[in-house]
Amino acid sequence: MKTKILAVSLFLSLFNPVNAQLQKVAVSNTVWNGVTTSKDGRIFVNFPRIEGDNGMRIGEVLKNGKVIPYPNENWNNWKVGADVNEKFVRTNSLRIGPDGLLWVVDTGTPAMGQNPLTGNASKLVSINLKTNKIVQIIPLAQVSKASTFIDDLRISGNTIYLTDAGEPALIILDKTKGKGRRVLENHPSTVDNIPIKAEGEIMKDNDGNEVRIHADQLEISPDGKWLYFQPASGPLWKVETQYLNNPKISEAELESKVSLFYNTPSTGGTAVDADGNIYVSDVNLKQIIKITPDGKESLVIKDERLLWADALWIDDNGYLWIPTGQLNRLSAFQNGVNKVQFPVTIYKLKIGAKPTRN
């Protein structure tokens, strides 16, 4: 009898929608959408301005769980009408790059769905984690259009790759010169043509229109050869970086080098490990899947707590960090009623993979 009970318990633990391997790291009463960690264990988080909330945009999570403004309060106290040059207006993503700096994408938009402000509102900001000082500010107005929404970045050498989720395109930027150019504008690989589904429902705005988030997630293969990218609803495309990095190649020729890689689901965030496996958060089925370089899919974890798992991160200890922000439950997608169940949580899961920094 004991053997049967043990077998039943094991079966239930394996197929229970709440997985004990998912470890709670931090909680917040403000929605976040990204996390990144340093080699010495510091934790940084991103708070996008999505419900008109003021205050902290980039925070550091202390060992006692308290979150403090980073790199200081002055960078995190922008208000409408104030100067935008040395302030975070609306940050959307952050990550520690291969150069060891903390890179932040500031969309420069006062609120979700609005256009960027003028000046240096839209920008990339890099921060030295040893001194906690700003290293570089790269204005993005030069590579932006009226409804541009710079979404995320990846870095390889002196090249920064960005996605524009508002005016569909990829942006190729020279980190040293601060100059960039737009490619694959309105190409099928950058345009979101598929409904985004979350928790079994098609996402719609308060006017009943289906939500479209264009070029969004992107990853670079560990050898730097391939850039993978997609709209939020998928699918995932790929192109060799040698073609992206060549300013002399024609747009038509570049488009011919783009190929479909995998039919990914509606996605909150991605990460890539040192073996080239891409981890994808399925916001509809509340799960994380892994896609190998040769296009084979496997389930990493399925859990009811993965409510819009956003930008993923792999640390140096083999953990996958998973920020859950419940984006689809915001009032902008729920007929004006905020249905987020606070606090929102960041989890981590041991996957035994090594990170790649790009």
From TrEMBL:
Recorded GO CC terms: extracellular region
Keywords: Secreted, Signal
Pfam families membership: MRJP
Record bears the keyword Coiled coil: no
Official protein name in the record: Gluconolactonase
Lineage, broadest ranks: Bacteria, Pseudomonadati, Bacteroidota, Flavobacteriia, Flavobacteriales
Signal peptide, first to last residue: 1-20
Places the protein is found: Secreted
Origin species: Chryseobacterium balustinum
